[in-house]
Amino acid sequence: MFKKRDRNQLNLFETNRRFVIEINPENRWVKLAGIMPWDRIEDYYAKNMCEDNGRMGISSRIAFGAIYAKEQENLTDTETVQQICENAYIQYFLGLESYQSAPLFDSSMMVHFRKRFSVEFIAQVNEYICTGKWPDDENRPQSPDKLPLPKKTTKKDKEKLDGKEEVTHQGKLILDATVAPSDIRYPSDVSLLAECRENLEGFINELHEESGQGGRKTPYNRHNAHKKTIKFIKRKKKTNSVIRSALKLQLNYVELAINQVLALILLCGLECLADQAWERFDTICKIYLQQKEMFDGKTNRCEGKIMNLRQPFVRAILRNKVRAKYEYGQKLALAKANGHVFMEHQSWENFNECKTLEQSVLNYYNRFGYYPEVILADQIYQTRDNVNFCKKYGIRLSGAGATRKNTDKEKKKQAYNDLCDRNAIEGVNGVLKRRYGLDLIMCYLQHNAEVEAHLQILAMNLKHRLGIVCAFLQKWIYRSLLRRGFAVFQ
Known about the structure:
Layout: H1 28-35, H2 38-47, H3 60-73, H4 77-86, H5 88-93, H6 109-115, H7 119-131, H8 155-160, E1 172-181, H9 189-211, H10 222-234, H11 240-268, H12 275-297, E2 315-318, E3 326-337, E4 340-347, H13 357-368, E5 374-376, H14 384-392, E6 396-397, H15 409-434, H16 446-483
Parallel strand pairs: 1-5, 5-6
Antiparallel strand pairs: 1-3, 2-3, 3-4
């Protein structure tokens, strides 16, 4: 039986309002609000705020909750503000007492929210979510050299412990490194110099008006410079001679523009440019010196090579992957232990991840109070120093000491099982990049980009923690129903 219904949309602006918002206590945002350490967040947030003067600021729960919700749902800043207006559960997570349809803040405030939280503090929040206790740095070893050696329990020790051995090694530590690419244009020396030239021309326009001088603004023809740049970009086949001639041309333009800007600054004064403009001008000068050095040396490599004018901190990380040989962003050393993920090291410069093994063991000991039984890692971690370090603390390093002549079936089976277990960290990298946006960091500021990477790891760990809580509640309900004599079907 089918009956047609009224197709007219309900009018919510009249007296007849049928939509009533009822908060479901089983919703994920409601449960996440109970897990998050809001008191610790507020104490840290208050250190960066003034209590006496100025207008009332946005609360710490709204600030931290907004940047967390962005990474949880993998949204942009503008979409995050819109979702907060539309979703009552997110507003409950932010600590609001009633539903508000008006925006709580402008989307540009998301940049300032990320600035107010340090990378170290978010790492502490992540450790609290994973271990259930706040990290206490005073009672922890601060370096791998200060780690206590594992004690060997004797018969007398077992009698004191009622026959039970003290736990010194437990669990698995899985290590791997990945890169979080930044949102930059594919780096090209000619296009980078052309962008520097265009920015310098913008500075010249501003300074020329303040100086009050007449005549030509630049010592070269801007139209011809732009035309030659476009002609080079549109060229399909670029030989080495064509590239060098284009580089020589752009270097000449940038040098003339820098001299023109310096001459106008002497006339107008040092206060004519803002702080942000001075930083941009300093970056352009560094790029020019690097490109000039590489052009004279007939090479395309130099120490600390700047890849992008807007994000000068981004470096090229050698990966040798199928999709690309280089990735441009921050390199992260990740560790997975007890089902949770931790960031062991974060740097914009390229580093060898094998050097982070000792620090990872130190962090594992500080978090859980014991050493891992085995460390599952790539072949790059199997250096002589790492092998000796693991032997010293009674930790088995997967793949260490394995040779082709070794025909022991048990060792082969163990190596195969270790390889299968190590795939868990590869799955973590895939989830972070595909689900939470680690594949492309959209923040332009260096600090905000680092904070965003940590928040994405925190979001994934919180989801895992929430799944553990839900599974525990289901088991508890199932057992309670069985005790009362109810028939429960799984």
